[in-house]
Amino acid sequence: MKVLVVGSGGREHAICYCVAKSEKADKIYCAPGNAGISALAECVPIGAMEFDKLVAFAKEQQIDLVIVGMDDPLVGGLVDELEAAGIRTFGPRKNAAILEGSKAFSKDLMKKYNIPTAAYENFTDPDKALAYLETAKFPIVLKADGLALGKGVLICQNLEEAKEGVKTIMLDKKFGTAGNEMVIEEFMTGREVSVLSFVDGNTIKTMTSAQDHKRAGDGDTGLNTGGMGTFSPSPFYTKEVEAFCEKYIYQATVDAMKAEGRPFKGVIFFGLMLTEDGPKVLEYNARFGDPEAQVVLPRMKNDIIEVMEACIDGTLDQVDLQFEDNAAVCVVLASEGYPVSYEKGIPISGLEEFDRHEGYYCFHAGTKFDGDQLVTNGGRVLGVTAKGKDLKEARANAYAATEWVQFANKYMRHDIGKAIDEA
Ligand code: AMP
Ligand code: GLY
């Protein structure tokens, strides 16, 4: 089979790693890919939002399966365009990717189908939002409706901050048109867990759990980022939590989308908060998480192409999804200054060590070749993943492997997976 993966981050590198392991894949392309991905796939210089070029390329090369990894092209309808051209594609259509593309939509869906989530109101009029805040309880959470690189969420401690937040989102349009509509919701406390799942429109099979670390600094300080590291599984995702989510959240979401005439095929990512009143949905994503994929996919035993084809064909009920009985930790190596401003083009060395060690992976996020030299090319540069028999061993292994890698402005958190000590 010829497979085309769309995207250019660590998540797509992890997807390409699984595709490369599959006996079904003869040739892998990645658009646009990155320096690390080019070791597994032929990178083609087409951007993930260049739909016409992607469709033309897939037709020309007679691609048998396209895997769309990123949120923007999914929400923009790339899957629909590829399917219209007769190309088999893994990922939700535009009318289903709205589950991630509009927070107002997803909140209304949860309310309508009684799926546990924070209490909320949606607003298209900033004056009404401001009036609502006058009588609200604080802290409170403001969310831009649309995609905002995971940055469109503001947690406001008091009325002042919240008023400023409404201005930022709806008037100053800091997140662009994502702020045309806004959700204001109740602030919840608890541990967060990410659960990714494969969905074929009817059947849902969840993958092993994970936890992200979204803040830039140790001890969950500093700005929100795309994610600074992950561990899998989460010891807080107990059998009881899982049973609750199976009863009230997972299948309920798939059934709700179907009932709305928006059958979901692809990956649903459940961002959960384990509150005192039970698990609640923080958000949905319509794709693998990044860097969740970097700890979940290396532990998956199945052939990824078989699972994805079952999602497309509606035969996921026949798949026995299995994960290794071990653990993995991913520590993101970023450029000092991320997520605000940072230097790029800095030489990277030491990656050959990963070829010498079983169970260690270096997934590239922002890298490129400058001639023969590998250099940094983004805020998040590399995701260093290691497995271990348990979380503690995986964490020690991952941090040991971060020492192999050198670049002048290397920055990382030192407490990825620290939470497991409290489990
Ligand atoms: P989201 O993009 O919706 O997952 O939000 C990003 C982050 O903001 C989450 O991972 C949480 O840490 C935090 N967050 C979002 N919604 C809430 C909420 N209702 N209460 C508390 N924290 C929240
Ligand atoms: N790591 C969070 C996300 O992919 O949205």
UniProtKB/TrEMBL annotation:
Q: Which reaction does it catalyse?
A: 5-phospho-beta-D-ribosylamine + glycine + ATP = N(1)-(5-phospho-beta-D-ribosyl)glycinamide + ADP + phosphate + H(+)
Give the pathway. Purine metabolism; IMP biosynthesis via de novo pathway; N(1)-(5-phospho-D-ribosyl)glycinamide from 5-phospho-alpha-D-ribose 1-diphosphate: step 2/2
Q: Which SMART domains match?
A: GARS_A (SM01209), GARS_C (SM01210)
Q: Name one GO molecular function term.
A: phosphoribosylamine-glycine ligase activity
* KW Ligase (keyword) present: yes
**Pfam families the record matches:** GARS_A, GARS_C, GARS_N
Needed cofactors: Mg(2+); Mn(2+)
The chain positions of domain ATP-grasp read: 107-313
Q: What is this protein called?
A: Phosphoribosylamine--glycine ligase
Q: Which organism is it from?
A: Dorea ammoniilytica
